[in-house]
Structures are given as C-alpha cells and as structure tokens.
Amino acid sequence: MSVWSKILEAAQRAFDPEADAPDLTQECAPQAGDVGFTAAVIGLAAKMAKADGEATETELFAAAQVFRPPPGEEAQFRRVFNLAKQTVAGFDSYARQIGRKYRARPCLLEDVLDGLFHIASADGGVGEAELRYLATVAEHFGFSELEFRRIRATNLGPEINDPYAVLGLLPGAAMEDVRRAWRRLAAENHPDRMTQRGAPEEFVAIAKEKTAAINAAYARIREELAEPAESGV
C-alpha cells in the first residue's frame, strides 16, 4: 500500500480539526513512507497554498513536483491534498510537532521549508501573506530570523546588493566568515548528500538550485572583495 493510500485511510483522523493530531512521537526516519510526517507536511503545504486566497491548480501541480506520487497515483495525491486544504486547521500545531520532533535535524526542517517555498512560488511569486506564513512555520521549526532570511534568499534570490543573505551573514562580514559559511552550506545542501542525511529524493532538484545560489553568492562577494578563486573549489 502506498503512502497516499495509507494517508487516505487515515485522512479523516489526520486532517479533521476535531480529531487528535497525527502521531509524530514515534522514532522513525523522515522518509516518504512515514505517514504521520507526510500527512503533517501535506497539511502545511495545503494550508499555505490558501494563504494568499484560494489554492490554485498550479500550486497543486507544484506540490506534486515536491512529493512526486508514483505513476498511476496522481489522483490519490490530488484527493489527499484537496482533503487537507479543505479541513486542516491550526497549521501551527503541525509545524510545532514537526519542529519538536526533528529539532536535532535542521536539514530536514529546511527541506520542508524549501518545499513550501517551491509551492508558494508556483503561481508566479510569493506574496506577503505567504511570506508571513512561511516565517511563522520557520519560527515554529526553531529557525532564527537570520536563518529564515538565508533560507528565503536561497529560494527567492537575495535582495538587491545583499548576497550575504544567501550565506546567512550580515553585510560586511569578514572574508574568513564568508568562506566558512559557504563551505558549510555548500556541503550541507549538495544534492549528493541529500539521501545520506535522510532527506527525501523529492528535494534533490531544489538542492541543486540552492547550491547554485550559494555558489553564486560566494562568487559575487569574492569578486567584490577582489579575492582570488580558490584552487580545487
């Protein structure tokens, strides 16, 4: 039985605001087969898709790109997403549960935010309501304002003249700190490491985009400071 079929079986309980929230207390790897985790994340995605008004087909398609239901189960996925969109309430509780359980795995929590950014961007841009929603989810996940600024920049691009945001630094940071941040983020977000660190395969494409943004920001800062390119990098 696929994860979507399992979620549909438990959908009334998982997405009914009158029922208990999904059980996220069991120790289990955050993989696609983890029904409780997947249900909670789909709830967050569906709620966010309505943050700026009404969820669109474009956003549903973007969610399918992130979760990638198996061939032949697209209709199942649509049913799960639409059910969550219609009945899920109190997204804060989903975000807090995920944040509490996986606080020691910030890379996984960042993957979830990356997926939400991808869905939010699907209709041509991310509005203020969606940004507020994403910032609140990030706060419940335990990310600081500076960390959220970095995650936002790697997904949406840095604000004008601020490549430092992509590296999670304030403008004017020392080159040593810039280099250290770049090396850490490039290693953490490299697509080849996604599987090793327990992230679902669905986020490999997003990791490639983030890695490109991280490298571009580092190259821009290095150029501005007239730093020579590093050999072997």
Task: Provide a short characterization of the protein structure.
The protein has 233 residues and is mainly alpha-helical.
CATH class of the largest domain: Mainly Alpha
- Mean model confidence by pLDDT: 76
* Principal-axes shape call: elongated
Total number of distinct structural domains = 2
* Major sheet size, sense and barrel closure: none
Rg, alpha carbons = 18 Å
> What is the CATH-assigned architecture of the largest domain?
Orthogonal Bundle
Low-confidence stretches: 22-29
End-to-end C-alpha gap: 45 Å
Q: What share of residues are in beta strands?
A: under 5%
- Percent of residues in helices: 55-70%
Order of secondary-structure elements: HHHHHHHHHHH
Q: How many runs of DSSP E, i.e. beta strands? A: 0
Question: If you had to describe this structure to a student in words, what would you say it looks like?
Answer:
With 233 residues, the protein is mostly helical. It has two domains: 143 residues, TerB-like, CATH 1.10.3680; 75 residues, DnaJ domain (Helix Hairpins, Orthogonal Bundle), CATH 1.10.287.110. It has eleven helices and no strands. Helix 7 packs across helix 9.
